[in-house]
Amino acid sequence: MASFSQLVDNVVVNTFELEQPETRIGRRNDNDIQIDEISVSGHHAVIEAVPNAYLDGTIDYYITDSNSTNGTFVNDIRIESRQRLNSNDMVRVGWNEFRFIDEDENALEKTAYILD
Length: 116
Description:
The chain is mostly beta strands. It has 1 helix and 11 strands. The longest helix has 8 residues. It is globular. It starts with a strand and ends in a 6-residue tail after the last helix.
């Protein structure tokens, strides 16, 4: 299960479970994650959960900026198009910091076997 945790001074203040195929983020009340803050656009960004084409039962997560005014950043880099999220990525929406956590990705990394 993946989650999106809002941070203030590196302390988690809110955690949102990403249980839907699409999670909308923005200031308006019709978003799944509503952030009532002036730096966030009405419809700011979208996180998509997409089945992995190669690993059955594995979900990949992508974030897309919805032409927001202040941008969406992953690990301090402004995204220009759809960006894959990896566990522990830091995401900035306007002035708001989030950490993306994918427990399934962490478990998969622990069981990886590399052939020489």
